[in-house]
Amino acid sequence: MDVQVIQGFLANGDQAAHARALQYFEQLKSAPNGWQLSMQMLLQPSVQDDSVKFFCLSVLEHYMKTGYEAAKEGDQQAMRTFISQWIQMQVYAPIPEKVFIRNKVAQLVCWVFLWDYPVRWPSFFTDILQTLSLGPPAVDAFLRVLLAINGEIADCEIPRTAKEQDRNRLLKDNIRETHIVDLVNSWYTILTTQCQSPAGVELCRLCLEVVGAYVAWIDIGLVANDRFVDALVHFLSLPALRESACDCVCEILAKGMDPADKARLVESLSVVLQRAGVLAVAEGEDVDFLIKLAKLVNAMGIQLFDSYSKLHKKGDGPNRQLVQSEVASKVPLMLQFLGHEDDDVSQGVAEFAREYIQYLKHEPGNYKQPDKANMEAVLYIVINKYKYDSSYLFERQDKDMTLSLTQSMISTTLQNWRSLPFQDVEVAISFLYLLGEAIPVIVYSRGCVRPKLYFEPELHCVYHMYHYLISSGVSTCGHPAVTLQFFETIVRYEKFFSQEPETIPDVLVAFMDERGLRHPSPSVRSRVSYLFSKFIKSHKAHMLNFTEDILKQLQELLVLCPTENGVTMSSLLSPDDQLYLFEATAMLIVSGQFNAEKKQLLLKNQLTPVMRKFEALAQRLPLEPSEEKRRDIA
């Protein structure tokens, strides 16, 4: 493999090197042994360059998506062996891999799981659990794999095809029946043995995230029990873990279950937390933790009101009275946080407060003396919140200082993004996005010509930061949060490209490769499809030289999802996402400087595969005996 060319895959601002790397990437993807070469490269201890690792992992990911399912048994076993060898390598590595590399590997393992479990690799969880004894790097890999698996089989916010839904249901059933007890026991072991060292604390945070993710679809009794609750209460007293523990408890409270059981769960957790003094707000307490506590109290209130509503519909009077009593006991907690001087803490329980007011409005019989006192307290809190803060500066806004500090933070982060946690990178790009709100766009809208940018200090500053966002390579970070914020920010500053059209090719490539429309995460692909359409609409005048290349790249994404036995098969984009791309292609063709015959040909090239698929389905529809399958085809 040509390592020198590969290093251009994450090149900062070197468009030629990046183009060569992309060409080599396409070459290896199509080569029969490209995935094997990439695997061999990754297992060489001498390979330390992150660009090379990310490149090779991307080749392997492409192979997993397109060739692994039908591969020979020996090739499939080679992939499973690679996973084991990679984990062992990390155990003895002197320096941990960057987070984006670890997440990329976890996604790769997740793809193996989706294809092989439980038929070809029934011992998947047994094997991966056995690696935990190898040490913290193996524990980290284990937890990231579990998060990746949960994201693929249980994330309700990601649209799924009928076939994927059936697959996910079977996978979850199998996990619940055969492995979940072992997994839960491993989580408890990690939480109780790893929190003594700084590295272990990070593993505990990751483990709490796993518990919070899985509790939505496993037996609540596996987590809402004495040993786990005792551990969570202990973590709520540890500054390094208490915020993560708060989030985990909130996920437990959000678990879907019978309303009466939910009310009892809320009350039991509330009693334990109050006895431990967790919900008592100490003077001078860390505001970040108070925000999390407010979120926890808010979750209690919202879940109680939800249970009350369901019990009311069922006509369950006794349990409804129980919930009313529990609500009354939680309102003082809500008022305590609502009246906090920090507005973010107050905002944390705002939903609880709104639901409480609605509850009293719709249930006038419940409006008793304590509630009158509570409403009076709410009113006074709101009045005080409307007052100007005593420290508010009416004359001096410190705009220059704010811009300077923000610029420094963003620039430093973009320069060092490879060595920073994804949270730091995401927040830097978010602040660049928000600068577009803080700095008036009227300078752009005046119809200023390009040199005007250099006479507006604020825009001069933003211009350089935005230019560096595109050239820094941060779009290759791989974490969905960073990727989404990158594209959101790209589209936010649409006027920039009118001044700097030469940056458009790099952005187009990012939109259409594994960073955007072909990203591993379905939620990222879905959002990017909309943002891409918006980007094309804003800059179609600058796309004239790229139209045909764009159309070729999009063609495979526009084919109707194939069907098998009336069930929609896997596709990179959902039908709704494809509509945005159809809109983008139509704008490109119509606005392009082509003659009528050329436009007709381009449209035909885009629509012919769709029409052929449509005709095949239309012919099959009346012949299908199953009503359910006919509905799927339609």
From TrEMBL:
Alphabetized InterPro entries for the sequence: ARM-like, ARM-type_fold, Exportin-1/Importin-b-like, Exportin-T_C, XPOT
Gene3D superfamilies in UniProt: Leucine-rich Repeat Variant
SUPFAM superfamilies in the record: ARM repeat
GO MF term (any one): tRNA binding
Signal peptide residues on this chain, from the entry's feature table: none
Sorted UniProt keywords: Cytoplasm, Nucleus, RNA-binding, Transport, tRNA-binding
Subcellular location: Cytoplasm; Nucleus
Residues annotated as domain Exportin-T C-terminal: 398-617
Single GO biological process annotation from the record: tRNA re-export from nucleus
Domain annotation Exportin-1/Importin-beta-like: ranges: 100-249
GO cellular component, one term: nuclear matrix
Protein task: tRNA nucleus export receptor which facilitates tRNA translocation across the nuclear pore complex.
Family to which this protein belongs: Belongs to the exportin family.
Name listed for the protein in its UniProt record: Exportin-T
Organism taxonomic ancestry: Eukaryota, Metazoa, Ecdysozoa, Arthropoda, Chelicerata
